[in-house]
Amino acid sequence: MAAESLSDRILRENDAVLGAMLSHRFVEDVKNDRLSKEAFERYLVYEGAFVDSAISIFAYAAATAGTMPQKRWLIAVLDALANEQIAYFERTFASRGIDPSSFDTRIPEVEAFRVGMLDIARRGGFLDTVAAMFAAEWMYWTWCRQAANRPISDPLLKEWVDMHVDPNFAAQAQWLKNELDMAGETLEDDETVRLSAIFGRAMQLEIDFHDAPYL
Ligand SMILES: Cc1ncc(CO)c(N)n1
């Protein structure tokens, strides 16, 4: 029997916390087309702030990547974040008349996620950032595929869900998984334990972050 890949091991070891996130109230509300306008708009502002910091997180990954193919991939990720994702927030805030500065993005759940993810990237190495963003992106790809098959009345929420099932985003989630698997073939066991814990920490921060639109 082939040895379990590192990403599959991480997913298995974090099954409970990943499952808790995938059945979070926010995910259930989107899948059942019952997320309130107020919660969606708070989410959008918090999320826009996170996507901004994701540019910094992936910039750390680009700075610590070992090979040119990794650097090229991450530069494309940075381009998509700045020019597709951030553009989505700019358009959405404008069309809804949302003023992000009138929301408090410094509430603990939002700040803990942003600072926690940024700290992993800033203080850790390349694989630490990959493990944390694998948690974030694999989870979004998973629940958005489920939500994309159901009716979503709000066109901007529908567009946001669809962005996370787009082949480009799917390829990015798979790329992170594959980076872990390639590295995993030569990692010491204490390193794999540490990376699995980073995944778990990131997922718990995600859970708290998705509570925030309801507070
Ligand atoms: C909060 C959050 N987690 C994960 C993703 C996926 O990148 C996202 N866009 N936002």
UniProtKB/TrEMBL annotation:
<dbReference type="GO" id="GO:0005829">
    <property type="term" value="C:cytosol"/>
</dbReference>
<dbReference type="InterPro" id="IPR026285">
    <property type="entry name" value="TenA_E"/>
</dbReference>
<keyword id="KW-0378">Hydrolase</keyword>
<protein>
    <recommendedName>
        <fullName>Aminopyrimidine aminohydrolase</fullName>
        <ecNumber>3.5.99.2</ecNumber>
    </recommendedName>
</protein>
<comment type="function">
    <text>Catalyzes an amino-pyrimidine hydrolysis reaction at the C5' of the pyrimidine moiety of thiamine compounds, a reaction that is part of a thiamine salvage pathway. Thus, catalyzes the conversion of 4-amino-5-aminomethyl-2-methylpyrimidine to 4-amino-5-hydroxymethyl-2-methylpyrimidine (HMP).</text>
</comment>
<comment type="pathway">
    <text>Cofactor biosynthesis; thiamine diphosphate biosynthesis.</text>
</comment>
<comment type="similarity">
    <text>Belongs to the TenA family.</text>
</comment>
<dbReference type="InterPro" id="IPR004305">
    <property type="entry name" value="Thiaminase-2/PQQC"/>
</dbReference>
<feature type="active site" description="Proton donor">
    <location>
        <position position="206"/>
    </location>
</feature>
<dbReference type="GO" id="GO:0009229">
    <property type="term" value="P:thiamine diphosphate biosynthetic process"/>
</dbReference>
<dbReference type="InterPro" id="IPR016084">
    <property type="entry name" value="Haem_Oase-like_multi-hlx"/>
</dbReference>
<dbReference type="Pfam" id="PF03070">
    <property type="entry name" value="TENA_THI-4"/>
</dbReference>
<dbReference type="GO" id="GO:0050334">
    <property type="term" value="F:thiaminase activity"/>
</dbReference>
<feature type="domain" description="Thiaminase-2/PQQC">
    <location>
        <begin position="21"/>
        <end position="211"/>
    </location>
</feature>
<keyword id="KW-0784">Thiamine biosynthesis</keyword>
<dbReference type="GO" id="GO:0009228">
    <property type="term" value="P:thiamine biosynthetic process"/>
</dbReference>
<dbReference type="InterPro" id="IPR050967">
    <property type="entry name" value="Thiamine_Salvage_TenA"/>
</dbReference>
